[in-house]
Design a protein that fits this description.
Blueprint lengths: L2 H11 L3 H32 L5 H22 L1
Length: 76
């Protein structure tokens, strides 16, 4: 962004562009955490009903954890 664009953004939103990017990325990480918790809860429910095995729960939890780790690495 040019200096004029940054000034216009700051004037319109009241936040600097870098701070706004942090807010957006933080919201996305929170949504990823919620999605991962929902996914694990769904597989746990299937596991308790006998429709999924322990390995299914483990693989879903590991994939969700890996996605969260990657997202946190990118956000930093």
């Amino acid at each position: 962004m040019t200096a004029a664009q940054e000034a216009a953004f700051l004037g319109a939103t009241g936040h600097p562009p870098a701070g706004f990017g942090n807010i957006v990325s933080s919201i996305l990480v929170v949504l990823l955490f919620i999605w991962a918790a929902w996914l694990v809860a769904q597989v746990m429910g299937s596991r308790l009903q006998g429709r999924a095995r322990d390995i299914d729960l483990l693989s879903v939890a590991l994939r969700a954890s890996a996605l969260i780790w990657i997202a946190l690495y990118i956000v930093q």
